[in-house]
Structure formats: C-alpha cells, structure tokens
Amino acid sequence: MINKITSIIMVIFAIALIYMGGQLLLAGGSAFYALMGVGVLLSAILLLMNKRSALTLYALLMWITLFWTIWEVGFDKWQWIPRGDLFGVLGLWLALPWVVRPLYQGQRRFHPFLGGSVVLMVLLVIGLCFYDPLPQQGAINTPRNASATGGAAEEWSAYGGTTDGQRFSALKQITKDNVKDLEVAWTYHTGDLRQGDDATEYTFEATPLKANGMLYFCTPHNEVHALDPETGAVKWKTTPDKNRSYLQQHQTCRGVS
C-alpha cells in the first residue's frame, strides 16, 4: 500500500517536472528537468508494478542529478538546494525499509545501489557544509576614514550626527539657561499622507541631515525634501516612481544618509 501511494506521488511529481521543465526548455533553458520528469515517471511505473528496478533507476537518476549539478554550479552548496532537494528527499524515502521490503518479499530491507547512493550523497552534503565556494581573502587597500571624536557642529551629515552615531551637537547657542525661551521658528508640511493601500507599518521617523546649507529628509513614501534650514522654505523635492510594489510591508524612511 505504501508503495502504491509513493508511486502516485511520484507520478504527480513527474508530471509537474515534465510540464514545467518543458516550459523552461521552450524558453531556452535546460532540458534537465523535463528529462528527469520522464525518468521519475518510469521509476514510478516500475514501482507500481512492484519491480526492484524502480529503485535502481531512481538511484541512477540521483547520480545524474549530482553530476549535472556539479557541472552547472560546481560545489556551491546553496545552489545545490533548488536543483536537488526534492530528488534527494524522494530518494531518501525510497531507500527506507518499508519501501524496499515489499520489493524483496520481506527478505531484504536495504537496496544496495539506492541505499549506498543516499548514504554517500548525505555524507557529501554534510562535507559541503564546511566548504566555502566563494572565499574572500585579502586586504583592503583604501584607507579607512577616521571616526569623528566630537559631536556634530554646524553640519549634521550622518544619521546620528557623526559616523559614531552619538546624536549630540557641540553647538553652544542653546543651553539649559535659555532653552525655556525657545519659540517655533517655522513649520513645514510634507503633504505626504497615508493612503488606503499603504502598509500596516507606516511611520515617519526621518532624522533630517544638514549639509552644505540645506536640510534634507525623506517621507514614508520615499519622497526626498530639501529645505532652507533658516526659513523652512522648500528648495526642491523629488517623488519616486509611482510603482508601489515595494510598499507591501514596511513604510519607514529614517534618513537619506
């Protein structure tokens, strides 16, 4: 009964491979998936007929998949996953005793070719976990900019004032003695309001940057505004493309640095 259910699942898997692999082939892609679909379909038919050759054929398909994967992407383990994950899981299932035993009338629980292939490939995958296909070694030749040691003064050119992110200003015009006398110098309204199809997380968290005599900040819809810091008059603003597909989850622009 287990083998019949397995055969049906394999047939569905094979049809999907043949169909989608055929689409890929017609688009100029690899013929591998369509051919593998045919192979899996043959293996499913043999398993439904209670033939041991079903497992032998599938083991052969696994080796073909392995060599093709190595030929196409080398030993980059992350690129192995989309090429061999389903084949590997199905091969592991077919190698289990409750699939093998009915094919040998209960006399054997291990298929030498398929079982040995699965063991070797599992060991290979474990070994690949300790292999870096893209090692990055060497030295950075460009000098690093020294971090600012004090607080920001007239210019606020980074998110936290300086590259150290201290969020502290060294200016002395405002003190604890005169802060009570401060009044609103100007206000500015961006006009960027929440819309009906905006994301749930919609927040205005921009920290304005002051550089070269201008005040810059951004809005939740990624508009960038430049103001005169003394009067609040808008100098210019830019609105991005109206394609709103990037606004599906978070709408928060914290700054332009």
Describe it:
Its cofactor is pyrroloquinoline quinone. Residues 156-257 form the Pyrrolo-quinoline quinone repeat domain. The chain crosses the membrane at residues 7-25, 31-48, 55-74, 80-100, 112-134. GO terms for molecular function: oxidoreductase activity. This is Membrane-bound PQQ-dependent dehydrogenase, glucose/quinate/shikimate family. The chain is α+β, with helices and mostly antiparallel strands. It folds into 2 domains: 2-128, no CATH class; 187-253, Thrombin, subunit H, CATH 2.40.10. Helix content is 41%, strand content 10%. The strands form 2 sheets. It has a 4-stranded antiparallel sheet with strand order 2-3-4-5, with no helix packed on it. Strands 1-6 form a two-stranded parallel ribbon. Helix 1 (2-26) packs antiparallel against helix 2 (32-48), helix 3 (53-73) packs antiparallel against helix 4 (77-94) and helix 3 (53-73) packs parallel to helix 6. It is elongated, with a radius of gyration of 32 Å.
The main β sheet shows up as:
4 strands, antiparallel
Silhouette: elongated
Number of helices: 6
Helicity range: 40-55%
Strand content: 5-15%
Average pLDDT figure: 87
Radius of gyration, in Å, reads 32 Å
Secondary-structure-based class equals alpha+beta
Number of domains: 2
Q: Which blocks of ≥5 consecutive residues have pLDDT under 50?
A: none
Order of helices and strands: HHHHHHEEEEEE
Total number of strands: 6
Oligomeric form: single chain
- What topology, given as strand order, has the largest sheet? 2-3-4-5
- What is the CA–CA distance across the termini? 63 Å
Protein name: Membrane-bound PQQ-dependent dehydrogenase, glucose/quinate/shikimate family
Pfam family, one: PQQ
Domain Pyrrolo-quinoline quinone repeat: 156-257
Transmembrane segments: 7-25, 31-48, 55-74, 80-100, 112-134
